[in-house]
Amino acid sequence: MRPPPFILATLTLVACTGSALTPRPFDGEITAIGDVQVEPDTTASEIDSTVVDGGLCGEALRVESLRPEPGGGVSIVVQLAAPDGSPGRIEGATALLDGMPASIAALPPAPGITALVIAGDSADARRFVDAMPAGERFVVWNGAELIVDATIDRARVVARIAAAAPAPAPDYAAWLAIGTALAHLGGEAETANKALVIGTTPPPMTLRFETYTLDGTDVAAHLLARRAGLARVGACPRGGARVAELTVSGVTCAVTLPAAPDYLAGLPCDASADWSLGDRVDIRLTPDEAATWQARHAARSQDEFSGALAIGGATPQRAQLHFRGQTSLDCERKSYNIDLDGSAPRPLMPGVSSDKLYLISMCADEGYYNQLLADRLAQYVGVFPLQFRVVVLYVNDVNQGLYLMMEDPIQGLRDDHVALTEVVRRRLDQDGNAPEVKYTADHDDPAALARYLALLDVAADPVALGQRLDLDAYLRWIALEILLENGDYIDEIFFFASAEGEAAPHYHVMAWDPDDLWSACHRNGRDALPDPHGILYCVEADIDHVLFANPDIYDRFITHLEDLLATLPIERIVSELASARDELFSAVHDDATAAAMTELTAVTPSAATVDGFRSAVQALMDRDLQRAATWIDMLRERVATYRGAQ
Fold first, then answer.
1. Rounded distance, CA 305 to CA 190, Å?
2. 214 by DSSP, 3-state: which?
3. CB–CB of 402/610 below 8 Å?
4. Residue range of the domain that includes 387
5. Which of 499, 528, 324, 314 is nearest to 421 (CA)?
6. Rounded CA separation 362/515 (Å)
7. Which of 95, 128, 173, 608 could form a disulfide with 102 if both were Cys (CB 3.0 to 4.6 A apart)?
């Protein structure tokens, strides 16, 4: 997730010592528009990023970041502090901008990013990592060398710190690179939740970061207390103002406001909202572009074509588009890969900005909720870092129905890591299909493929495999797919790695594109790994045949499945599914959107109205929940039987 354009005020610096569908022709008419108003290449008009001193307002109020919002609005993250340095009281706090009322609310609790710069093994650093909350992402440099890229795998973080040899302090250029990397890592929601932990000589330049030292004090407690005092102020400044007075609970200081991009200027400003751009997305095509669209659609072609994209009524942005996917190419409502012209990130959804995105039609998802549910649960178990939301797509004002807007997975992974080197998607091993190399930093796809395939060579040795793969995350992903009775998931996974100072890459995993929940194992289970305990379900990959032949690995997997059965009981599944339903239903606000969902209306014609759509989807959910309850009960019984035999 690339951060939206914002003005960086402060980051935290901590110091530490070394101590399958039938094709149908498209029958919706696309009428070309004669004159598309578009924003010029935004690379020529970047946001004016004047840095604000984090201490400008004094100890009671610190400005962390400022960001332009739709309609000329501004979002300001501040830190409140009581006189004794403890977090200030956000409840009941008031805010003004140039004397005009502004909204203020606590930032929702969220894990942050902690970077550590050590000078060899540090017991203090390891204790600090252990003290931070679950979900915190860590990046570690040993001197100037990156040894751990952004990860929530704290066991790996601690192991890599423990193995670190003594290293000299980073030089000027290395400190600058470290600071730049941290500033650009992660999304806007994490901007104020970053910490940099140093274990060597302080930087030889002024870095606008808060500084702490692991000197025996409880730095983790200090950081978490600081985050508890973070609040977001939302305001609609008077027109043209560049410098404004910000007042929070009686404390006043001057802030330089960010210049809003022109494509957001025409939207309404609502300081009390979450600054969402709305759920309407428009693809705009000139007559020639519409003709190309029709040709690509009819031919099921993935060749690029030009157009413009508008999100939530913003000014359309020029873009290159192509239809994407495999099964979805056979659908009337095809999915899109969109690359906005220019390299400047544009806001896609709260906390996420990028110049690349996917629009996923969910046409193979019977009730349009499987992917929503599975992705949310994959986020929960730590194997899906991407953000997404439901939108309604129009092509030249013709309603195309519900789509899932998602950040581009490769761009998202690159933005979420300091030194991503490769991304590989597994394909159908049993058919002899080679894995697909999706990205390499050095453009050497064959070498990346060879490195990935070498995982199989060490799969029989859990210790060696653990050095090459986040094995627990992989087993947790399999456990989730089994919990959801996914009938086809062998190729629904990405493996990615970074340059971390090791001879061979260490792979992490990301779930991808699940839409076969609560279904029979594809191909009648002919390729599924037999399991005398009846717990493994549709496990098919070559590496799985090696892994699960090891009783210790099987037992380790069972532990992960037990954890999910405890934390994701049927009641949680019901709640998450209700949330997905509410998101879908809120987007289907007219009969035209319901009627555009042609996959459902072909089976249930009455679903072509809002009420009919809701009734049809609810019936599918009720059916799946009944199956899920039965399945989860059976899993519990079989796991108990397995444990009882140990």
1. 35
2. strand
3. no
4. 280-411
5. 499
6. 8
7. 95
> Of 383, 411, 439, which closes a domain?
411
pTM equals 0.90
Residue 70: pLDDT band (50, 70, 90) is confident
Burial label for 477, CB within 10 Å (0-12, 13-18, 19+), is: buried
Domain count for the chain, please give it: 2
CB contact at 8 A, 72 and 237:
yes
| 373 neighbors 517 (Cβ within 8 angstroms) | yes
Each residue of 15-38: pLDDT tens digit?
443 332 233 333 334 444 433 333
**In contact, 183 and 138? CB cutoff 8 Å:** no
Structure tokens at 263: 């494509």
How many Å apart are CA 76 and CA 92, to the nearest integer? 18
Q: How confident is the model at residue 210 (pLDDT cuts 50, 70, 90)?
A: low
**Beta-bridge partners for 68:** 74
Say how far apart CA 95 and CA 117 lie, in whole Å.
Answer: 37
Asked if 218 and 305 sit in the same domain, the reply is no
Strand order across the 508-511 sheet: 436-440, 420-425, 493-498, 508-511
Closest by alpha carbon to 325, among 358, 296, 299, 354?
358
Q: Rounded to an integer, what distance in angstroms lies between the CA atom of residue 477 and that of residue 225?
A: 33
Which amino acid is present at 397?
D
Angle at 316 between CA 313 and CA 320, to 5 degrees: 135
Q: DSSP strand E in 171-229: where?
A: 194-198, 209-214
Q: What would the two tokens of residue 149 be?
A: 């890229």
Cα gap 81→88, rounded to integer Å: 4
Q: DSSP for 498-538, please give it.
A: E--S-SS--BEEEE-----TT-PPGGGGTTSPP-TTS---S
Domain end point (choices 193, 228, 263):
228
Q: Is residue 356 part of a domain?
A: yes
- At position 293, the amino acid (one-letter code) is W
Asked if residue 163 is part of any domain, the answer here is yes
Q: What is the pLDDT of residue 13?
A: 41
Q: Is residue 120 part of a domain?
A: yes
C-alpha to C-alpha distance for 283 and 431, rounded to whole angstroms:
37
In a shared domain, residues 213 and 285: no
Residue 448 DSSP SS3: helix
What pLDDT is recorded for position 22?
A: 30
Residues 212 and 304 placed together within one structural domain of the fold: no
Asked whether residue 487 is assigned to any structural domain, the reply reads no
With residues binned 3-state (H G I as helix, E B as strand, rest as coil), the percentages for the chain, rounded to 5, are: 35, 25, 40
C-alpha to C-alpha distances, 49 to 66, 68, 242, nearest whole angstrom: 9, 11, 12
For 87, 110, 182, 297, the CA distances from 228, given in Å and listed in that order, are 6, 10, 21, 50
| Amino acid identity for residue 336 in this structure | Y
Which value, in Å, is the radius of gyration of the alpha carbons in the chain?
A: 26
- Whether 297 and 402 map to the same domain: the answer is yes
How many helices, marked H, and strands, marked E, lie in the chain? 17, 27
Q: Which of 202, 193, 184, 130 is nearest to 161 (CA)?
A: 130
State the Cα–Cα distance between residues 497 and 146, nearest whole angstrom. 13
